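Tokens in:
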């Protein structure tokens, strides 16, 4: 189906602002830096998932679904935004989250977990290896009870979710023309890969002239991540009848800014959170956006991005995850060593 004909639930506040960051630009002394504020999409505390959910929920509504089933990590932004969308649209939702132990409920209710509890949605916490069987059992159970359940994969990273970022690239292409800027690069955090796939498909299809850089949030193999992104990009191209050819170097990923693992704390992430806060008054989170900011800071320091470049930093949201990291952030600001790097809620803490 053509991209413009896709069913769409209007959930996000769009277009999001494009803002120049003069102080960060000055501080790094290299590329001129803008931010695309996708943390302001609305839907709970905003973020990139709102854009994806416009198309995913559009499809779910078209198929007359009444129950959403999805999964992700314990403090997942995806779960927060999907739950908010379901609540808004009057659907039921079951979140299957991975944690350090089955039934884990947090030492306190904090960050995204608190938001899930406030929305009153169903939460099942399992060990990672039990995710798939729990999803399968949930789908069967709900069908048996007479519901019409709709499954969304982690992060909504299939072509329908990527459609949200094809649309974002269309928006950015218009904004750069409107403001008389040509961006050379876009830097963002890549996890399940749908955001990058949509950005790359959009940049190619609309000839935006923007190189998309993905900073990986886990220190996994770069090649596996690039392949995942390519697969979703090519699937989007086919499904939405887009016209471009994907080259190998269209998908750029870095894995060196993730720290020791997904959601782990590191000096580099803490520095990035602090730098965006004390130069621009802008809040980012240690799990995603700080990884992208650390990547941007490092590429500017290493002069891989220079004064010739106009860079847009994509703020993908996730700010609710800032507060559970209060202890290491406090230590960083006070110049002490980090009290922990592996969060208690990580499955890897066991
Ligand atoms: C999910 C998420 C990302 C990564 O998007 P993917 O499409 O999963 O790669 C980036 N930033 C934030 C804040 C997120 O919640």
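Residues out:
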């Amino acid at each position: 189906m053509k991209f413009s004909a896709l069913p769409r639930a209007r959930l996000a506040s769009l277009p999001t602002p494009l803002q120049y960051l003069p102080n960060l630009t000055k501080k790094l002394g290299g590329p001129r830096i803008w931010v695309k504020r996708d943390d302001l999409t609305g839907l709970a505390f905003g973020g990139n998932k709102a854009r994806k959910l416009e198309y995913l929920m559009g499809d779910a509504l078209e198929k007359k679904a009444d129950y959403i089933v999805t999964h992700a990590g314990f403090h997942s932004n995806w779960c927060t935004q999907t739950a908010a969308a379901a609540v808004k649209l009057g659907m039921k939702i079951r979140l299957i989250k991975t944690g350090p132990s089955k039934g884990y409920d947090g030492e306190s209710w904090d960050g995204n977990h608190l938001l899930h509890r406030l929305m009153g949605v169903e939460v099942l916490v399992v060990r990672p290896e039990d995710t798939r069987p729990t999803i399968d059992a949930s789908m069967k159970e709900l069908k048996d009870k007479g519901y019409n359940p709709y499954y969304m994969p982690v992060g909504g990273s299939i072509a329908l979710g990527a459609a949200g970022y094809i649309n974002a690239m269309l928006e950015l292409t218009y904004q750069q023309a409107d403001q008389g800027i040509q961006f050379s690069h876009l830097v963002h955090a890549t996890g399940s890969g749908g955001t990058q796939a949509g950005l790359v498909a959009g940049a190619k299809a609309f000839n935006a002239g923007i190189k998309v850089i993905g900073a990986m949030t886990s220190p996994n193999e770069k090649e596996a991540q690039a392949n995942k992104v390519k697969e979703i990009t090519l699937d989007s191209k086919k499904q939405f009848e887009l016209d471009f050819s994907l080259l190998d170097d269209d998908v750029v990923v870095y894995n060196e800014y993730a720290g020791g693992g997904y959601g782990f704390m590191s000096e580099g992430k803490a520095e990035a959170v602090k730098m965006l806060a004390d130069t621009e008054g802008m809040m980012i989170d240690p799990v995603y956006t700080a990884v992208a900011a650390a990547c941007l800071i490092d590429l500017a320091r290493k002069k891989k991005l220079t004064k010739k470049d106009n860079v847009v930093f994509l703020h993908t949201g996730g700010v609710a995850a800032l507060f559970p990291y209060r202890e290491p952030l406090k230590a960083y600001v006070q110049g002490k060593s980090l009290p922990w790097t592996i969060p208690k809620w990580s499955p890897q803490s066991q």
